[in-house]
Structures are given as C-alpha cells and as structure tokens.
Amino acid sequence: MWCVIVPTYNNGGSIEQVVTDILRHTRNVIVVDDGSTDNTAQILRKMGVSTVTHPHNMGKGAALKTGFRKALEDGFTHAVTIDADGQHFAKDIPLFTEAMERNPGALIVGCRNLSEKNMPQKNSFANRFSNFWFTVQTGIRLPDTQTGYRLYPLASMRRAGFITSRYEAELELLVFAAWHGIRLIPVKIDVYYPVRRISHFRPVYDFLRISLLNILLCFLAAVYGYPMKFVYCIKKRKKRQ
Asked: N or C end: fewer C-beta atoms under 10 angstroms in the chain?
C-alpha cells in the first residue's frame, strides 16, 4: 500500500493545485507543512487532507523524516515524494507505482531531462556535481541524484539514518540506500520550471552544506559504505543458492 508525501514550506501559490492533481490518482496524501508563514496552512485546512505541521521551519530532510514516520504509522509500505512548488507532474505517479510492482524493494528515482526548456543552469551544474560524487561514494551511476520525485520502500529506509535535515538530506538518503543494498531504479519524468519560481534553495549556503556532506560521505564510503555493500552482496548470493 502506498501514499504520496508532499513536504511544503510557504508554497501558498502552488500547493492547492499540486494536491488537487495528486488526488486524481490517490486519496492517500500526507502533507508535511514545515512551519509555513504564508497561507499554506489555511489552504490545507480547507482541502481537508492529512497534514502534519512543524512548529517552525526545520528543513526538507526533517519534513521527509516526519512524513515517513507518519506513513509508517498509517500502515503504508511505500511513499512517493513530490515537491510542492509545482515542478512535478502528478500524472507521472503511475510510472513509479508500476516500477514498484516490478521491483517492490527498490527505491524508484525520478530522472529529469536536464536540457528541458527553462531548466535553471544552476540545477544542471548542481546535478552533474552531485552525480559525480554519488558515483565516487557508491560505485553506482544515476542520471539524476537531485530530484525530489521518488518512491521509497519505507521499511528498508529505516536503515538509512539522517545526518542532515535540509536539501542535502535527499542525496544522503540515496547514498545510504545504496550502501545498504537497496536497488535504485531510475524512471524518466517530466518537469516544469516556470520563469518565475519560488525556491527556498540558498545557492551559497546550501551548496556549501552539500559540499561538506560530500566530504563526509566520501570518508564514510571508505570505512562503512563499501564494506556494507560487500556484506549485502554476499547475503544476496547466499539467498540465490
């Protein structure tokens, strides 16, 4: 059983349409309001969807953690995560659920066309930067390690701890999933970037945080990540025998 988790912070201009589109595919929606100070909370109350509210802004990683915990409490086994700024299309949800049915224990990763019209140049650079270090840390190549459109196997994600609480947490989740033997399956998705788009990403501060996280993950890859991958490979071979 799966649900959709929508972390949001001050997305009053887009959250209603995002949730409305999701409801065309499922009623199982959990919105995590990460301390919004605009009219997001009022819109969500009017819509009557399941909402968990942080008393103040704690970061996207913290919002995802809250959403995962709520989903598990409600009995869901998988969760699709969608950004609240309108860049993702709910019509792509079946791509994730179909991939989940073929690979029930996998983490399904949405992959954008980085040459898409209106794709911010900084996004393309950040993704190439992130993809490179992800390969160094895991030995796995993924075309898009920065997207927030994913489907997580919730029980398996319990093994993936959170070091960080903001944007970089999504990269961390991928890395720890790979280290713990969770398959990463990419699916192509559409994306929309309006000319004027509200983003809470702080280029200098958040890029510095991501860089520091990559340094830490490279160290952990040597002492923990690659040894864990080896252990899980041995376990899988024994199961096949």
From this structure: C
Q: For residue 171, count other CB atoms closer than 10 A to its CB.
A: 22
Residue range 159-217, pLDDT digits in tens: 665 667 676 889 899 999 999 999 999 999 999 876 555 555 566 666 777 788 889 99
Distance of alpha carbon 152 from alpha carbon 19, whole angstroms: 19
Task: For residue range 57-97, list pLDDT tens digits in order.
Answer: 999 999 999 999 999 999 999 999 999 999 999 999 999 99
Q: What is the length of the chain?
A: 241
DSSP 92: G
CA 134 – CA 61 distance, rounded (Å): 18
Closest to 40 (Cα-Cα) out of 70, 9, 66:
9
Question: Which of helix, strand or coil describes residue 133?
Answer: helix
Q: Give one DSSP letter per residue of 216-236, joined into a string.
A: HHHHHIIIIIHHHHHHHHHHH
* DSSP state letters, 138-162: HS---S-SS---EEEEHHHHTTS--
DSSP structure string for 8-38: ESS-TTTHHHHHHHHHTT-S-EEEEE-S--S
Residues in CB range of 52: below 8 A, 6 or more apart:
30, 31, 32, 33, 66, 67, 70
- Count CA atoms closer than 13 A to 6's CA, side-chain side: 33
Report the SS3 class of residue 188.
strand
Please state, in angstroms and rounded to a whole number, the distance separating the CA atoms of residues 144 and 113. Answer: 9
Distance (Å, rounded) from C-alpha 124 to C-alpha 138? 21
CA distance 94 to 137: 30
